[in-house]
Amino acid sequence: MGTIVCQECQKVIEHFDNEKVATLYSKCPTCNQPNK
Question: Which of 3, 12, 9, 14 is nearest to 33 (CA)?
């Protein structure tokens, strides 16, 4: 079981099935929007 975590706000974005347990860092849609 793996987890994708937002590197900006540390919110868990998604869980996925994988052979290894892993934590991947990405950006969630909220943090990905440009600041206005």
Answer: 9
- Indicate the SS3 state at residue 18: coil
SS3 state at 31: helix
Does the predicted model carry a pTM greater than 0.90?
A: no
CA 9/CA 23 separation, integer angstroms: 15
Q: Which is more confident, 11 or 19?
A: 11
Task: Find all residues with CB under 8 Å of 10, minimum gap 6, and list them.
Answer: none
What CA–CA distances, in Å, run from 11 to 1, 4, 7, 16, 19? 17, 9, 8, 15, 23
